[in-house]
Design a protein that fits this description.
The chain is of the alpha/beta class. Helices cover 34% and strands 25% of the residues. The radius of gyration is 24 Å and the shape is globular. Bound molecules: aspartic acid (ASP) and magnesium ion (MG). The site of magnesium ion has 4 residues, from loops.
């Protein structure tokens, strides 16, 4: 018995049937004697549809008005869900972000949660209400409605769990948890029982879209255990938590990211300051650089290769031209690449993880173009056509069938 925060994403509440299904999960939790705070996203594709509507009027809507519009999606889902809970015989009250005490920074569209003043939520719980809170939104110091950025309701849920010292923060979604690879593509992908925040952050950035990154960062900061589980099949999910007493596994997962472009400049003078100038220009354009490789060429020149997201590729090329006097023929931009990675805190204490990964690629005749490593991750850049094959081969090497 304790306080449960339960978050349901857009697909879990997309129609009346799904809303009733969710209401059943919530009322079951409540009837077991727990206090329940629920966080919901807008139904189905509502947020996308609202953005479309705004774009029909103007390509450049005011950010304040866009937040006012987008926040309405969650107002629909909280009120419907509160009605559904009452229909199942339990008391419920719905609250918008500002009513629930979500104070945010003033940046419309990308607001950060500054504090959750949970007095109202507490008062409603004291009245034995199930509290249904609109995710993804808050209020800034001008008393205007703000939103937290796409997928922000996960963060709303973790923030409430942190502020109220909840027993559990459960993020219900349409998959059963976090897997060792994309279960739609890899037949013997396994569901993980648990994973650390750092591993989850790597997996989230690498394209395993189960949890919003900021929610994991917040969970780590305030030590909130987050459980990812399905709203459709009632089976245990995956728990994101700190390392202590973890199931020992060499790696937790294999992922691919196709939102990558590789940019190279060749024949740069082999003198100090080239990398500094290049990467500070990219930074001033707020372009995130991922893998970097520099090599010395013949006749006192050097080559620099780096990767950025596809959306930043053109701007990165422009930055190079702005910074250096280089011939067009010395710049290449390749978007036909993918990054495939293995992630796992276990590799820190196991030599040979990289060799095992590279061997799997070699056996399938897949050429590695770039490599980068951190304590808990090894990534390779390869041609995009081979990416799925690479994930399958690497997954098989680390998770042989007999263990499935
Ligand atoms: N409804 C918002 C979105 O679609 C927030 C969320 O789903 O978490 O981005
Ligand atoms: Mg959504």
């Amino acid at each position: 018995m304790g306080l449960y925060v339960q978050k349901f994403g857009g697909s879990s509440v997309r129609d009346t049937e799904r809303i009733m299904n969710v209401a059943k999960i919530i009322t079951d939790t409540y009837r077991q004697g727990n206090d329940v705070v629920v966080v919901v996203s807008a139904q189905g594709d509502t947020t996308d549809d609202l953005i479309e509507k705004a774009k029909e009027i103007t390509e450049n809507p005011s950010k304040r008005e866009l937040d006012m519009l987008l926040a309405s999606g969650e107002q629909i889902s909280i009120s419907l869900l509160a009605m559904a809970i009452e229909k199942l015989g339990c008391p419920a009250v719905s609250l918008l972000g500002w009513q629930a005490g979500f104070n945010t920074s003033s940046a419309y569209g990308t607001a950060r949660i500054k504090a959750v003043k949970a007095d109202r939520i507490r008062a409603e719980i004291d009245r034995h209400n199930i509290v249904v809170v609109a995710g993804f939104q808050g209020i800034n110091r001008y008393d205007d409605i703000t939103t937290l950025g796409r997928g922000g309701s996960d963060t709303s849920a973790v923030a409430i769990a942190a502020a109220m010292h909840a027993e559990r923060c459960q993020i219900y979604t349409d998959v059963e948890g976090v897997y060792t690879a994309d279960p739609r593509k890899i037949a013997n992908a396994r569901k993980l029982k648990e994973i650390t925040y750092d591993e989850m952050l790597e997996l989230a950035t690498l394209g395993a879209q189960v949890l919003n990154n900021r929610s994991v960062e917040m969970g780590k900061k305030y030590n909130v255990e987050i459980e990812v589980l399905s709203s459709l099949n009632r089976v245990p999910g995956t728990i994101v938590k700190e390392v202590a007493k973890m199931e020992k596994m060499l790696i937790r997962g294999v992922t691919k990211d196709t939102d990558v472009a590789r940019i190279s400049i060749t024949n740069m003078p082999h003198t100090p300051g080239v990398a500094f100038k290049l990467f500070s220009t990219l930074a001033s354009h707020k372009i995130n650089v991922d893998i970097i490789l520099q090599s010395v060429g013949r006749s006192n020149t050097k080559d620099i290769t780096f990767t950025v997201s596809k959306g930043n590729a053109q701007e990165a090329v422009d930055c190079i031209k702005e910074t250096f006097d280089v011939a067009d023929s010395d710049i290449t931009c390749d978007t036909n690449v993918a990054k495939v990675s293995v992630v796992g805190a276990g590799m820190e204490s196991h030599p040979g993880t990289a060799a095992k990964m590279f061997e799997a690629l070699f056996e399938h005749d897949i050429n590695i173009e770039m490599i980068s490593t951190s304590e808990i991750k090894i990534s390779v850049l390869i041609e995009v056509e081979s990416a799925d094959r690479a994930v399958a081969a690497i997954h098989k090497a680390f998770f042989p069938d007999e263990l499935a």
